[in-house]
Amino acid sequence: MLSQQTKDIVKSTAPVLAEHGYTIVRRFYQRLFEAHPELKNVFNMAHQDRGQQQEALARAVYAYAANIENPESLAAVLENIAHKHASLGVKPDQYPIVGEHLLGALKDILGEEASPAIIDAWAQAYNSLAEILIGMEDRLREQSEAKPGGWTGWRTFVVREKNPESDIITSFVLEPADGGPVMDFAPGQYTSLALHVPQLDLQQIRQYSLSDMPNGRSYRISVKRESGLDTQRAGYVSCLLHEHINVGDEVQLAAPYGNFHIDVQAATPIVLISGGVGLTPMISMLKQALQGGQRQVVFVHGARNSTVQAMRNRLRMAAREHPNLSLFVFYNEPLPEDIAGDDYDYPGLVDVKLIKDKLLLPDADYYICGPIPFMRMQHDALQNLGIPESRIHYEVFGPDLFAE
């Protein structure tokens, strides 16, 4: 339990963190990787190169300082972090290493402003936070290991199917190399996949939504190929999967985690809003929600055009077969053949105002997944339609840049 004095000191540093947080975090990662280069195998180095991880951590440190009197307000954030850490294989003995270099970075950047009292208060606050997260992560791992087909750490899977879904998205069906069962998951959860990247001579981990219903035998992920000079290292793993990983090859998977999922026991309506490859967790949610045949589902998807929209035929077939499903597709750059066909319903970006009569359903929950600008736009649009924040759920992979 933190003393009031400790809370006061940490809270008093919030303005300093608002001003110098990014610089402190950059110094933290520099110190961390110099002392422990092996941790580059855990961190997403693309996010490091592009400054996204630094920005996200700086924002998180500031939020912790600003809300230290009201830690309950950070409960959802901590739950999300715990799921990601459990999936990435973060270990309890790594927390003291991170704490050492975070405090060292504070001293390096703030100099004399980082008084012994401030450093001591932050050490106590960090240790308190670390204990909370370690406890949450231990419970998550224990729950995974206790489930039929569950495991902790990395497990070897074999690619059984590799199926192109569009010009840029490919699905991989993965089965355990040991021939055993796999644990069920909540529709919307993800798995972490680890591959060795020869260009970096590092293991890199990426998290991919599970894009099919649980079946006890296999998992399916649907991966967008990231390429282009502007993506830097962001495309290394996806390009390896698309170009070099084939049927019969092995990959390492973590057990499913994530707190972005539907309540499979509920009967209330759900509205699924996705952009681009953000539809992958929605497909799993959709298939599960349609199982009973009674739950009202609205599926809204935005893509550039038919060449990049994954699973479009399956979506149209589902809409024809299930009267409780309403499907609305937006193409912001439709091709001439799209205009002549029936692959989409509206030109332009997803605009929920155009279909608000279909979206505003009693007791509905709204799920958003896609690029961060897309999610910001849809989140704000739903709020402008009167949807309460408690009914809006979203998923962010990598650094959480959603909240400013």
UniProtKB/TrEMBL annotation:
Heme b binds at residue 85. Residues 152-263 form the FAD-binding FR-type domain. The keyword NAD applies. Its cofactor is heme b; FAD. It comes from the Bacteria. Residues 149-404 are annotated as: Reductase. FAD binds at residues 190, 206-209, 396-399. Its EC number is 1.14.12.17. It is an enzyme of class 1 (oxidoreductase). Keywords: Detoxification, FAD, Flavoprotein, Heme, Iron, Metal-binding, NAD, NADP, Oxidoreductase, Oxygen transport, Transport. The keyword Heme applies. CDD domains: FHP_Ae-globin-like (cd14779), flavohem_like_fad_nad_binding (cd06184). InterPro entries: FAD-bd_FR_type (IPR017927), FNR_nucleotide-bd (IPR039261), Globin (IPR000971), Globin-like_sf (IPR009050), Globin/Proto (IPR012292), Hmp (IPR023950), OxRdtase_FAD/NAD-bd (IPR001433), Riboflavin_synthase-like_b-brl (IPR017938). GO terms for molecular function: nitric oxide dioxygenase NAD(P)H activity. It catalyses: 2 nitric oxide + NADPH + 2 O2 = 2 nitrate + NADP(+) + H(+); 2 nitric oxide + NADH + 2 O2 = 2 nitrate + NAD(+) + H(+). The record marks 29 as: Involved in heme-bound ligand stabilization and O-O bond activation. Binds 1 heme b (iron(II)-protoporphyrin IX) group per subunit. Residues 1-138 form the Globin domain. The active site is at residues 95, 137. Coiled coil: none annotated. The record marks 84, 395 as: Influences the redox potential of the prosthetic heme and FAD groups. NADP(+) binds at residues 276-281. Belongs to the globin family. Two-domain flavohemoproteins subfamily. Consists of two distinct domains; an N-terminal heme-containing oxygen-binding domain and a C-terminal reductase domain with binding sites for FAD and NAD(P)H. This is Flavohemoprotein. It comes from Serpens gallinarum.
